[in-house]
Amino acid sequence: MLFRTTLGMMALAAIATSCTFEQDDYFDETASLRVTHINENIKQRLVDQSAEGNYGWVMQYFVAGTDDYSFEGFNLFGRYFDDGKVTLAGNHRFLRNGRANKYTEFTSTFRMLAEEGPVLSFDTWNDVLTVFEDPVDPSAAPGTIVNNGEGMFGDHNLVLKSFEPDELLFLGERHRSEARFIPCDRPWADYMSAVDANKSHIATSQLTSYYVTNSVDTMYFVGLNKGVFTYCERIEDPLQKKTLSCVFTPDGFRINHVDSLGSCTFQEFTLAEDGSRLLSEDGQTQVIACWDNYIVAHTAVWKLDPALFSAQQQTLYDQIDAAAKVFNAAWSLESIGIGKSSGSNAINGLVLTFYTNAAKTKTNTAGVALTITRTAYGQAKIDYSAENKVDKNMEAVVKKSPDMENLARAFAATLDGTYAMTPNDYFLPTGGLFTATAGGTTFQLNEKTK
């Protein structure tokens, strides 16, 4: 399938090329000859990086999208050859014929167009790229037309915006799709694996809210796991939103154009050495996962590490275990944790988990309510009083083992205090250290797995 060459955005192209190539002293030449020489340089740069021993190019591609939907950014890969052939690769979700999210390569052709400015044209069908402007929706019924024939507002003709030794920037000729070419530093499959691993670490379906902050301002954003950067002044019921597209890198993510928070500008964030946050290019703006709120609000049971029990807590643990055997000789205490108990009238608070037979194949829980609140970034307060409720399971146990409730309440009381929290992973904690700062006692939580 051969595409027509569309004209447009030529004034932008002329401005971009005149600024970018001033150092090459092309201005004694005619405009057409100047564009021809620039095109030759671009093609040669594309081909040189694709030569044996190199890994070609990463194209960070942002389709223009629509007002109703912002697509994520896509990592596409390319090798360019002197004969006009190009091999593109990707693993994005819009690949067809059962290839969605699977590594796919496709070879087609490209050429440099000498219009009013340099234009890189992918002039024949390519499964990896062309789907973004195909007017037929690949995910809908056969023949379904998308956006009145405009598809996803992708572009196959890319107008040069700037040309640097380590970066080529293009804008789509028709829809202003954005494409950034950077040299690939490893085999494509390895790059994709590194990107996927990074994305699964910093952007999950469980922890989806983040702070974006500098020394003066703080905002929130959500949606990173969907490849978008949606600003809001607060997480709950935001009054306004602003959405930018993201493309993931092996060690962070990049948004489709420069943005700002206060006086600080940014476009790309990279994971800090200690893994606690992502930093902008100048380090002034930070992206921090709302891990503290996740630890406090997450209702899964987090087990207290017995290695950090105080002497009092260890004594109470042993006494609770003995009280369980009064209820049923086959019972034993498996763990004490914080989270949501099971069964009717479940509570959030201290959760006792019991083995209910000698084979230890089944567990029951009983709980005493605690109030756990996040008081500031990385800080929490745990409140217990004698009026805190117990769940139905605890009430049932107490009927046969009257000491159980008092022992559980005594353990809960040891946790009453304020704490500084340190997670074991800043982007998806499965545990964390609660260091007592006023009252309470230092303890370690580890997420319980079934």
Walk me through this protein's architecture.
- The chain has 450 residues and is α+β, with helices and mostly antiparallel strands.
- The protein has seven helices and 26 strands.
- Helix 5 packs antiparallel against helix 7.
- Residues 1-23 have low confidence and may be disordered.
Oligomer: single chain
Number of helices: 7
Record field, number of beta strands: 26
The percent range for strand residues is 35-45%
Q: Structural class of the secondary structure composition?
A: alpha+beta
- Mean pLDDT across all residues, rounded? 87
Residue share in helix:
10-25%
Give the strand line-up of the largest sheet.
Answer: 4-3-2-1-9-8-7-6-5
Q: What does the overall shape look like? A: elongated
End-to-end gap: 54 Å
Query: How large, in whole angstroms, is the Cα Rg?
Result: 29 Å
The main β sheet shows up as: 9 strands, antiparallel
Which blocks of ≥5 consecutive residues have pLDDT under 50? 1-23
List keywords for this structure.
single chain; 450 residues; alpha+beta; nine-stranded antiparallel beta sheet; 7 helices; 26 strands; 20% helix; elongated; disordered N terminus
Chain-wise SSE layout:
Layout: H1 10-20, H2 31-49, E1 57-62, E2 74-80, E3 85-90, E4 104-109, E5 111-114, E6 118-121, E7 157-164, E8 167-172, E9 178-183, H3 188-202, E10 209-213, E11 218-222, E12 228-232, E13 241-249, E14 252-261, E15 264-271, E16 278-279, E17 286-289, H4 291-297, E18 302-304, H5 311-327, E19 332-340, E20 348-355, E21 363-369, E22 371-376, E23 379-383, H6 392-400, H7 403-413, E24 417-423, E25 431-439, E26 443-447
Antiparallel strand pairs: 1-2, 1-9, 2-3, 3-4, 5-6, 6-7, 7-8, 8-9, 10-11, 10-17, 11-12, 12-13, 13-14, 14-15, 15-16, 16-17, 18-19, 18-26, 19-20, 20-21, 22-23, 23-24, 24-25, 25-26
Helix pairs in contact: 5-7
